[in-house]
Amino acid sequence: MNLSYRSYHVFVRNLVSYKRFVVPTFIASLVQPLFYLITFGIGMGAYVGLFGGKPYLYFLVPGVLMSAVSLSASYECLFGTFVKMIHEKLYDSLIATPVSAEDAVAGDIAWGVFRGMISGTLMMVVAMAMGVFPVSVPAVFLLLICMVFVGVLFGSLAMIVTSLAPNFDFFNYYTELVLTPMLFFSGVFFPLDNFPAWMKSFSKFLPLTPAVSIARAVFSGVYSSSLITDFLYIVVLEVIAFYVGVKLMKRRLIK
Amino acid sequence: MKTIISAKDLTKRFGKLTAVDGISFDIAEGECFGFLGPNGAGKTSTVRMIHCVSPVTSGTLTVDGLPCSIDNRAIKKTTGVIPQEITLDIDLTVRENLMVFSRFFDIPRREARKRIEELIKFVELEAKRDCKIDQLSTGMKRRLLIARALINQPKLIIADEPTTGLDPQARHLIWQRLRQLKSQGTTLILTTQYMEEAQQLCDRIVVMHQGKILKEGTPRTMIEDEIGKDVVEIRVAAEEDEKLVGSLAGFACGHERVGDTLYFYCRDGRDLQKKLVELDLHNTVYRPATLEDVFLKLTGRGLIE
Question: Is A85 within 8 Å of chain B by CB?
Fold first, then answer.
């Protein structure tokens, strides 16, 4: 693993080029959560009434926050990286400089995390505008830290897919068959308590589930000891995904 | 002269395909060394190993005494690469492209700004400074690639077919810039399919074919050794060959029939030319031998795909 501080240069490169896309992506990142929160929160909230003594939106917001981060980071490391690698040949010129393949991939994952955090932060702002606040000010910062962990995890998982993708269509398998269904199995929109046992155990292994549990606990200030295993699971998974993602991308980039 | 690059039994394999097949060469500091060869000869694979973006399968390869390997940042730091494909960052402007690249080499900002202004002048892109890449012509893009390759003030420049697809004006400007760099003491490695380019720029060349080096030398000695001094091309039906060869062979040092043309290679073509006048042959071309003759003789005239 030939990793160095030069990943930061790759991150800055992405930041410089992002200047041109800021407005459209900001609008997308703002409108999308509005849809979620309005349709699910208000529409469905009216049916489900109070959740643990609070309106449904308090249940929904932390889940949607984490899924927004996971999706943004994934898309950036799928489509964004693929375009840079295949269409723009950016990686080819990068690895001819002292920036190593590992630096380049890590820089792109960091970029995915950043994009995820933009989505997550905007969503939090929207939720606050709708009157849904985390329990305390420190909870806001804890949620931001959660976003970093979720971003690295999903950015790295997406890198693994990108390293194997022959073309754009390949990503559909991952986004349609993995990412989208995952939202419904991870307790984002409703609690998993009523799932049959086997579905509950299956859900537990999905990477988004522990993230949603942690975010929900932080948001409401109600902690339980099972969060420790949730956190450890995320850390272990993300170390493995990062290592495998970087290695596979290097194999693809260097021939 | 000091040797800067040394290759011994250098081999590159991609799966079952052997792209570079045990070649050896030395490149001296400050010279322009050319790799010539048809498509798929192994030129690009060779230079990619030199600038450490492709691992060596077997054999040894050193730059400045350092062994080439993927993780050799020291070699990459002092090497400038003008790639065959246009790998500019299309999301960025001309200046931003250079600025971002300067970061990859850890060049301090202020120094980078100074170099970027000089380089933009050097490749004559002043008017395009703040344009995005899709507003540049192919020639401009290639010039920007040169500027980008120079941002780290490299000791060694690798130019992989730097003028492919350019008009004559753009090509000559690039040649001039490359010669200018060479006169400042930079070592230059060039791969090309254009014989004129090799003749214009290179002190020494190797002709590669199917992963092997067929011939090494200066362009001039290579022409003299392989072809002679002059070439006479006669466009004539093949039935005439026997008669013509019979009456002209004495004046030439070799002949070859290709398609509709009979070629005679001569050390000194003046007598042959006189004889041609005597025979009252039309459709003849008398010209000095070029590197292209050498190239075709060595690598064959068949299409290579």
Answer: no
